[in-house]
Amino acid sequence: MKQRKLGRTDLLVSEYCLDAATLGWHPAAADADTVLDAFREVGGTFIQLQADSGDDAGESGVGALSETLVGRWLHSRRIARPEVVLAYCIHLPAISSYFRLAAEIRSSCERALRRLGTTYLDLLLIRWTDGLPVDDTLVAVEYLQRSGMFRHLGGGGFPAWRAMEWIGYADRRRLSRLDTLQTELSPPGDTGSWQELRDLARHQRLGLVVRPPYTGPTDDEHPRGVLRPYPVRDSAGCAIAQIARERGLPPRHVALAWTLADPTVSAVLVPASTPPEVEDLRRAARIELAFHELLQVGRAAPPVVTPGFHEPNGHELLSSLQSTPNHSAS
After folding, report:
1. CA angle at residue 4 from 260 to 202, to 5 degrees?
2. Which pLDDT tens digits describe the chain residue by residue (330 residues)?
3. In which element (H, E) is residue 17 found?
4. Residue 52 near residue 127 (C-beta atoms within 8 A)
């Protein structure tokens, strides 16, 4: 598993991020050490946890148990803290009071640090919700960052225009800037919010962590959490399916390899709370597409038009390569 730079930060993360927030599920908790060991063995260094909210908050919540399991694993394996990158995602209620908002963030982070047995988080992710105040939230996290509770700030589920609003406000006030964005990935060729966030991340040098859209309900063919393929509903999806047939691979693995070929993407967030899921991830991590296969999907994807910005699509890229003179031949 390769290591990638997370945006403009100094963090190097594995190209797959383990969504460990469900390790506290029973019976998944019994396999926690096995899952974490396997993830580390394949080269994984990026782990994300999530705070409990509402009725699940407390020491018995799934998130709290997951944090405890990861903390015990780190201690039992004597893993040096710099060898792993810990991300922590919190969902804040719409609180109008700055002091209540700051107390909520601080108490949530302190509980996570205690359970994990560490003194700092590498990445604090704030989940977007309507009514979340930009100014109060950024001032609150600025204090916590300066105290050393976390190193970098990120946002999850942000619309592109809201993320830009946060970046602009932080720059004007010289507060903690968003260093990474987390969003759900769209299939190749789709436009809309995914393309807007991708362009924003590239221009603002943000780390982009994507969650594949192919995890669904449990069934006999696909156990819970095992990676599923993109829906083959367009020419790009058909190109992925064709490559998968030619190479004898599951389409979901080819789709992941295509996703990671995008230089804007820092990591893919994947669920893995049982040994079969980790084994599926292990096989996916070995896949790397050849240049002609990337072009095959790129040519099938429809051109994307973003106002004020033009990026070559697969057709234009192929044409430019074919029209470029071969200087080495002379």
Report:
1. 70
2. 889 999 999 999 999 999 998 888 877 778 889 999 999 998 999 999 998 875 455 666 888 999 999 999 999 999 999 999 999 999 887 666 777 888 888 999 999 999 999 999 999 999 988 878 888 888 888 888 998 999 999 999 898 999 999 999 999 989 888 999 998 876 555 555 778 888 899 999 999 999 875 443 333 444 444 455 444 456 777 888 889 899 998 888 888 888 888 889 999 998 877 778 888 888 888 888 888 888 888 777 655 444 444 444 444 444 444 444 444 443
3. strand 16-19
4. no
Task: Outline where the chain has alpha helix (H).
Answer: 32-41, 62-76, 98-116, 134-146, 160-173, 193-204, 235-247, 251-260, 275-285, 291-300, 314-323
Quote the CA–CA distance of 253 and 303 in Å, as a whole number.
24
CA distances from 49 to 18, 102, 132, 155, 270 (A): 9, 20, 21, 14, 12
Instruction: Return d(Cα 212, Cα 228) in angstroms, integer.
Output: 9
**Encoded tokens for 14:** 């594995």
The reported pTM is 0.82
Pairing of strands 12-14, 3-5: antiparallel
Tokens 């060991």 map to which residue? 37
Furthest C-alpha separation in the chain? 71
In the CATH scheme, what is the homologous superfamily, with its name and number, of domain 3-230+254-288?
NADP-dependent oxidoreductase domain (3.20.20.100)
